[in-house]
Amino acid sequence: MRKNAFAGVSALALCLAGTQAFAQSATGPISNFGVIASHNQYKLTIADESDKERLNQGGLYYSFGNKLTGQEGFIYEIGIEGQYRDKDDVEFLSARADLDLGLRAALSTNNYVDLIVGGGYDWGRIEQNDVRVGLFEEDVELTTRSPFAKAGVGYNYLTPDYTLRLEVGARYSIEAESRLKVAGESDTVDLKDKANPYGELTVLWNKGINNIPVSTSLYYSQTRYELDSNSDFADNSKLKQEEVGLKVGLAF
Questions:
Q1: Cα 92 to chain center, whole Å?
Q2: For every residue of the chain, which 3-state class applies, written as one string?
Q3: Which of 125, 126, 132, 145 is the most buried (most CB within 10 A)?
Q4: Cα–Cα distances in Å, from 44 out to 8, 71, 171, 231?
Q5: For each successive 10 residues of the chain (252 residues), what is the average pLDDT?
Q6: pLDDT at residue 231, as a whole number
Q7: What is the largest CA-CA distance in the chain?
């Protein structure tokens, strides 16, 4: 595992009230707080040679808005989440904040479709101990920052017992950058702007636990990192992250 302990670090280093009444009457904003469990796959490709690393992470999330409860008209949601994992002297941290704004139209009594636009900020850090750099072993820290714009489409299906929502879209990274720190020295490189797809299937169970609504979400996201440089190494080096996760929370 130490040999493959996140090959991406080494490669980038080279460049540097829930009842039925809830479903029927609650159309205003709600809070949603819960836990995240995710499985991540990192694929590093250099000159047609690739290496994969898999990692499970866990964390917390919170959101506020009417994207699950709103009917026709204006909808919105603001959210924040963070995840963490420490594995084989490699520490992984990630966080995201985003804001969604949209308009919703009714297809029928229980079916709604909406268009979503928004934006946010992605942050991630990998810290690896005792990485061989030349003749010495050093601690390496790689931090990625990425503002993004967002666009998507959503579909809501309402019943007295639950609300089902499907959303698909893309996050477009804007002026992302990666900072590498080794032995107290640091350097920053720009990353190419990329459109990264995502999808999420959410069910809000209105009866929930002791009349507190419960939400469950299954999601997928993909993020691609490419160095914004004209060098041959940058052109032939790519890192792709795919994440599949589950969110379980309480709505109030």
A1: 14
A2: CCCCCCHHHHHHHHCCCCCHHHHHHCCCCEEEEEEEEEEEEEEEEECCEEEEEEEEEEEEEEEEECCCCCCCEEEEEEEEEEEEEEECCEEEEEEEEEEEEEEEEECCCCEEEEEEEEEEEEEEEEEEEEEEECCEEEEEEEEEEEEEEEEEEEEEEECCCEEEEEEEEEEEECCCEEEEEECCEEEEEEECCCEEEEEEEEEEEEEEECCEEEEEEEEEEEEEEEECCCCHHHHCEEEEEEEEEEEEEEEC
A3: 126
A4: 6, 43, 21, 17
A5: 47 40 61 96 76 88 94 95 87 94 94 97 84 58 92 94 96 91 76 94 88 94 84 70 96 92
A6: 65
A7: 69
The answer to whether 170 and 211 have CB atoms below 8 angstroms apart is no
Contact between residue 112 and residue 106 where contact means Cβ atoms under 8 Å apart: yes
Which residues, 6+ apart, have CB-to-CB distance to 108 below 8 Å? Answer: none
Is the CB of residue 237 less than 8 Å from the CB of residue 15?
yes
Q: Is the pTM of this model over 0.90?
A: no
- Specify the amino acid at residue 28: G
Backbone region of residue 211 per phi and psi (left: phi > 0; alpha: psi in -120 to 50; beta: other values): left
Q: What is the pLDDT of residue 10?
A: 44
The span from the CA of 156 to the CA of 167, in Å, is 9
